[in-house]
Amino acid sequence: MINQARILTEFLELVQVDSVSGQEERLAALLMERLRELGLAVRERGCDKNGKTGNLLATLPPRGCDNYLFLCAHMDTVEPGQGVRPVVENGIVRSSGDTILGGDDKAGIAIILEAIRVIQENNLEHPGLEVVFTTGEEIGLLGARELDCRLLRSSMGYVLDCDGAPGTMVVQAPTQDKIAALIRGRAAHAGINPEEGINAIQVASHAIAAMSLGRLDEETTANIGFISGGKAINIVPDSCRLDGETRSLNGAKCRARTAAMVSLLKDTAARFGAQVDVVTETLYHEFKLSPDHPAVRFAVRAAENLGLTPRLIRTGGGSDANIFNHRGITCVNLGIGMSKVHTCDEFIRVADLVTSARYLLEIIRVAME
């Protein structure tokens, strides 16, 4: 019942609407109209705790049962995401090469819309569907973090935001800590009296060199991703800013690694006579779903019904699913065939768009049993 020409046309339309993080308004307006045309009650203002994030929450009442199911995709894309020109060739959709495609996550949006369209056109029985299109996912899951989950009736659902063939499902994902540090040294003339200065960049480099970075074990990683400082080559820099992260499938390991990096920064600054201000923040928490949970069982059974290979995987990346699982809504992240995301080589197969919509429709049907 999935209409290949229709889902492809809609996907091509969506990727051509600019929606880099923080600039999702045009896409949100289009999706509000589209959801209302499909018979859903749409709520924008009032579904966020801060009233500003711009998430969309749409509800389709149940037909034939009383339970609800949660479906989610995010509206924002990474840069370069302005002026996307999609190209369809040999059954593959890619960008023209100078931007990302934006299948992450407009493919997820198109798949959800197509599944609902089929349900409505064929008057199919279904659980209540609560559709959330979030903002700011690519810059720290901001929309999901601000969504007022008290408005949701669903106890479980699916995020459509993972690479991997249809039938892939993320059942374990890590926690992430952000580390931001400002090292304060002392300025001096680099050629006349450098011994009177304290080089903040040198302090930072010694601290970073002492850190264990990269893959630390099969569950844990750490990274320093940004460093800046200094005003001129003839001035001993009096400040240096660095930003990093830790991740782990084990929350205790993540917190311990964060504490170790903070301790190194403080000890190194003290050794050089500098000062350091460090701020850490847990951006999201880990989750691990049991294969026996209904959300996982429904997805596995639906995959098997369609002849797909169920693959239960763990990932090193976070998604909106981390936020919802932490807030008590059991959430599986589904693979929808996205490839080489966050690059100008990003692509998706038309067949995977169609199969993913069939798969979501089957999950909805199985949830009725």
From TrEMBL:
Q: What does UniProt list as catalytic?
A: E137 (proton acceptor)
Q: Which UniProt keywords apply?
A: Hydrolase, Metal-binding, Zinc
Q: At which positions is Zn(2+) 2 bound?
A: D104, E138
Tell me the domain of life.
Bacteria
List the SUPFAM superfamilies: Bacterial exopeptidase dimerisation domain (SSF55031), Zn-dependent exopeptidases (SSF53187)
Spell out the Gene3D superfamilies in the cross-references: 3.30.70.360, Zn peptidases (3.40.630.10)
State the free-text cofactor note. Binds 2 divalent metal cations per subunit.
Q: Name one GO molecular function term.
A: metal ion binding
Q: Where does Zn(2+) 1 bind?
A: D104, D161
Residue intervals of the Peptidase M20 dimerisation domain: 183-270
* The keyword Ribosomal protein belongs to this UniProt entry's keyword annotation: no
Cofactors needed by this protein, per the record, are:
Zn(2+); a divalent metal cation
Keyword RNA-binding carried by entry: no
The record's similarity note reads:
Belongs to the peptidase M42 family.
What's the name of the protein? M20/M25/M40 family metallo-hydrolase
